[in-house]
Amino acid sequence: MPSKRTTAALAACVVAATALAGTGVASADHKAADHKAQERHRAVAFERTATFPVFQNRPAGEDPAAETVAEISATSEDGRTLVYTDAAGKRIGFLDISRADRPRGLGTLSLSELGDAEDEPTSVSVVGQYVLVVVNTSASFTDPSGRLDVISLRDRKRVASHDLGGQPDSIAISKDQRYAAIAIENERDEEATPTGGKEGDLPQLPAGFVQIVDLKGTSLAKWRVRSVPLTQKDGRALPELVAAGITEPTDPEPEYVSLNGRNQLAVTLQENNGIVLVDVPTGKVTKAFSAGTVSVDGIDTVKDGTIDLTGSITDVPREPDALNWIDDRYFATANEGDWRGGSRGWTVFDSRTGKVAWDAGNTFERLAVRHGLHNEGRAGKKGTEPEGLAVAEYDGVRYAFVGSERSNFVAVYDISRPTAPVFRQILPATNGPEGLLPIPERGLLAVSSEVDDASAGVRASVSLFRLGKGTPAFPSIVSASDSTGAPIGWGALGALSAVPGKRDQLVSVTDAAYTPTRVLTVDTKQRSKGQPALITRELTVKDAEGQPVGYDAEGIFARPQGGYWLAVEGKTGAGNKLVRLDRSGVTRQVVALPADVASGLGGQGFEGVTATTDRRGREIVWAALQREVAGDPSGIVRLGRYDVAVGTWSWYGYRIGSTTTPGDWIGLSEITVVGDRLAVIERDKLNGPAAKVKRVYTVDLPASAAPSDKLPVLRKKLAHDVLPDLRTTNGWTQEKLEGLTVGGDGRVYAVTDNDALDDASGETVFLRLGSSKKIFGRD
Question: Domain Choice-of-anchor I spans what residues (predicted)?
């Protein structure tokens, strides 16, 4: 495996992999144009400017823990007021985004004021001074209904309403603003069983269709709604759909709509794995074709805690969700999948032929792996589940934005050549990014998320990104490729240690989120230039018999003698132990906690390990416990001193801070030696805007063992408050600041544990806090 790889080379590998995955092959005639495009984009990127949690925009008096989301969004014509749908809260919300670095809540409009408290907004768009909201009012799957409400942006009063005759999903406005198109899905009941079929199968009538709204200027009285049926009058399938091989053509379920500059409408039939083209002025179906199937190798297909990119899917229907026209000929689809499919990527189609012009293959999912955003818990299903897709032109360059519902990111591609997209960067999002809203007139992109989890403190939000020059803060760490060319899988970086004798190398270790445990080598030299740190090597941890083993490793220390110490946390107190590995990762020693200490611990034990070796070769290992041991004084946690030569433990106390936030606690999550002191991370359990305590403290390093009958409390001193550093990302402030070390270059590094995307946004923040002299007052 490579030990060194520059970030530039990494980017080249990603671009090359993306290009190779496509069915369109670049010709020699385009090489010069590609080179110019790469030069043009070298210093241009989207940078996150703000993340607004939409629960902060809830109505006065509502429980702040009540579910509230931002699913689909639109903006006013000046791009300064953002409107979003909140299906969970049964309302639409308004944000002032005049300042992209400081969005401000403008309140909400409940659908109970427009119809019924159970009405649900499914999509939104803006035409002039009017907000067009499509609303699901269905009583049941077999009795679908809906309406289009027209709301004045000025006073938020409804000025018109139109019956849609079925359950709507998405809405799109034509570029000339003459037409609105609405997908009337009439979705299936996943628990219903049609005659002769299986549970959730099609057909389940009534069939879906499309509604066209003729927007005749500013006179609302002249607006008219007309239907585009996707079946014949007697319910039989349209011949075009039958000829195209559309799944169950008697029950089309339109999902997403998009119009090109010629007022040609493209409609995805997700459950039917098809796409239909409609001439909007005449309302005629002009073409239909299957989205086809795809076989993909080199992906993770088994939910087993291991990021294993050797799996395959074969002849799987794409079942696209969102689609968007790239130009008047080509359009792109996000192939989320539904009941039978999902390609884990996205596709460009040629509308003239219905053929695939390019397909992402395995590259979209591998982007997630490379950036530590792979959701292993979804490996056995649809993986990254690309759901949202948007296209827009910024400064003469056309971009595609593809959102991963399950891995919480948006991938950005240059699609100046529709048949050869080029990956440019990845943007982090909070959970379930669905609404992707380009605002090119202001150089902005808004990403709205549909997942809200108050119990985990990770809330739905609207994130804003601005296109500009410079290196974006994300990603701060990525992985290189292994010997097979696949990216090294990683996540849950809960510990750091410098590598003795290596100026630019650190190590981290995976915890119980993955199995087997792996020691990861991190190259930091590019971080000083604002580029991501690079995971260059993985070492599988083995038990004493040489077999791969899974430890809940929460701390790591690279020994000058060779090998590593791991701090392993147990599900119970007795499961906590120190583990010594040799250079090849084999377990050579296991040190248990003393019984009296282990019996006082629950599931929160070891959280960090470090060591010193004196001139005589005497090795002393220090380990931090996260929380108090039962029977110890309240607010005092233990720092353990283990003398390797004599095999004895002694203990010192550390006084943690207090919290008044319900459900919160304060604990330790790392320990490292800094000269004649021990540095520890003290943190709370809070994240997002609620986060308060993410700090580094130091205590004097005791010169000898503590008395066996006492727990001397060491005096602590604040060295650095990391919370401002975490907040400079303008993202969701991460809870688990868990890794800290001083590198061989004299710099202080810290990292957050992304919990493998479990109850977390998945973003990893790798911080270069400054020199050891600056942080700790010494070189």
Answer: 341-424
Q: Round to whole Å and give the CA distance between 274 and 210.
A: 14
Domains 7-469 and 490-776 share a fold: no
- Topology of domain 7-469, CATH: Methylamine Dehydrogenase; Chain H (2.130.10)
C-alpha 332/C-alpha 646 separation (Å) is 66
Which residues on neighbouring strands pair with residue 86, listed in sequence order? 91
The pLDDT-based confidence of 219 (bands split at 50, 70, 90) is confident
579 in Cβ contact with 569 (< 8 Å):
no
Domain residues of the chain, as ranges? 7-469, 490-776
Kindly state the DSSP code that residue 404 receives in the 8-state scheme.
E
d(CA 112, CA 60): 16
- CATH architecture of the domain formed by 490-776: 5 Propeller (2.115)
Show Cβ contacts of residue 450 under 8 Å, excluding neighbours closer than 6 positions. 69, 70, 71, 87, 432, 433, 434, 435, 460
Residue that is written with structure tokens 């007022």 in the block: 263
Of 582, 594, 593, the C-alpha closest to 544 is: 582
pLDDT level of residue 652 (50, 70, 90 thresholds): very high
Instruction: Identify the residue whose tokens are 């330790």.
Output: 668
What is the sign of the dihedral through the CA atoms of 337, 367, 428 and 511? positive
Number of neighbours of residue 736 by Cβ within 10 angstroms: 21
Three-state SS across 478-502? EECECCCCCECCCCCCCCCEECCCC
The SS3 of residue 220 is helix
CB 5 within 8 A of CB 480: yes
Taking residues 78-102, report their average pLDDT.
Answer: 98
Task: Give this prediction's pTM.
Answer: 0.94
Tell the residue number behind the tokens 């992304």, with chain if given.
Answer: 754
To the nearest 10°, the Cα dihedral for 577, 578, 581, 585?
Answer: 50
> In this predicted structure, what is the pLDDT of residue 526?
86
Instruction: Extract the tokens encoding 763.
Output: 């973003």
In 28-113, which ranges are E strands?
44-53, 73-75, 81-86, 91-96, 104-110
pLDDT mean across residues, the chain: 94
Q: In Å, how far from its chain's centre is CA 258?
A: 25
- Give per-residue pLDDT as tens, 299-319: 999 999 999 999 999 999 999
Cα–Cα distance, 134 to 67 (Å, whole number) = 21
Q: Strand 274-279 to strand 264-269: parallel, antiparallel, or no bridges (unpaired)?
A: antiparallel
Contact assessment for residue 338 and residue 720, using Cβ atoms and an 8 Å cutoff: no
- How far apart CA 276 and CA 390 sit, in angstroms, is 19
In sequence order, what are the beta bridge partners of 73?
84
